[in-house]
Amino acid sequence: MSSIAINQARKVYSGNVTALHGIDLAVEPGELMVLVGPSGCGKSTLLRMIAGLETITSGTIAIDGRVVNTVEPAARDIAMVFQNYALYPHMSVRGNLEYGLKNRGVGKQDRQALVAEAARILELEPYLERRPAALSGGQRQRVAMGRAIVRKPRAFLFDEPLSNLDAKLRGQMRVEIRRLQKTLDTTAIYVTHDQLEAMTLADRLVVMNAGNIEQVGTPTELYERPRTTFVARFIGSPGMNLLEAAALAAHGVDLPHIVPQAGCTIGIRPEDIVLGDDPRPAISLAGRIEAVEILGKESLVYVAVDGVDELVTVRAAGGRWYAGATEKLILPLANLHLFNSGTGQRLESKSSPASL
Ligand SMILES: Nc1ncnc2c1ncn2[C@@H]1O[C@H](COP(=O)(O)OP(=O)(O)O)[C@@H](O)[C@H]1O
Ligand SMILES: [Mg+2]
């Protein structure tokens, strides 16, 4: 098991594009760390710098305490799994699994043993003599992972490996990758733009935004205490509602004293709003239902509220909600998240409820 330590890593591409602004990150041995963020935020750049496929403009990257900035990719002893599996089409599964080992001069007996072990772990034994064309997408993905496993690398790096698969298979492969990573006990960094994938896979996750890290934490920590409005919106599905306190007050909404009325953004998750009545201390709003999406047991209800630019999203039980109806929205104080409207940073306040 290996550690990866990133210190003030910056990347400026030619043409003066700054992709990373100075990243600090410590990945613990055996950890599955997920980098998540919108397209273009620098996830692939960071991963490729760790793999050695991209130069580091300044700062350091260390693997097991050794700075690898100028170490060749092959000598870093790290395996990368890509979205397009990059399998050799003219070789069997066995050939694909063995290829890298052969290149490295691993003897025949050792090769066979390593391939057999990987095939067993990945349940690829029945397919060893097939060509990639005769495999399903999920099986090909497993072969791609098998090629990484047989090398017994210090770490696995995954760059959106499941993007080409359909939703159901993606869900299955997610579970499989996590199980595999824990079985092999190998440090891994996994890149995705999909917050659900990030939440379900990660030991810890790193939310990135425009070349910076917004927050690092466990899925629960990020869900319960997002440090910025960006993380609040990005983590959770649908993301957190954000309402300006001053605009609500201007529309006659009664705000409790824990909510500063100037420069404060109130955050509340769709699953934390109650439609109708609730006895808890709360902010009470009224709004008109604009749209309803029935999910089955629950519905997503989109409500227009005076003083709020975007529709407020509510995850409500049942399907008895109708567009056009006026409803009461209860925002329990214990569920509020408060942010500085200017900086987007979470407000910490001694007098606020525990969840703030
Ligand atoms: N080879 C390159 N040359 C110039 N700019 C690049 C190159 N690769 C990526 N970029 C830019 O760097 C930023 C980060 O890209 P990338 O790391 O691919 O983001 P992500 O993987 O999060 O989508 C983007 O603005 C992208 O356009
Ligand atoms: Mg990318």
Automatic annotation (TrEMBL):
One of its GO terms (molecular function) is ATP binding. InterPro entries: AAA+_ATPase, ABC_transporter-like_ATP-bd, ABC_transporter-like_CS, ABC_transpr_MalK-like, ABC_transpr_MalK/UgpC-like, Mo/tungstate-bd_C_term_dom, NA-bd_OB-fold, P-loop_NTPase. The keyword Translocase applies. SMART domains: AAA. The keyword Transport applies. It comes from the Bacteria. SUPFAM superfamilies: MOP-like, P-loop containing nucleoside triphosphate hydrolases. Residues 4-235 form the ABC transporter domain. Belongs to the ABC transporter superfamily. NCBIfam families: PRK11650.1. This is Sn-glycerol-3-phosphate ABC transporter ATP-binding protein UgpC.
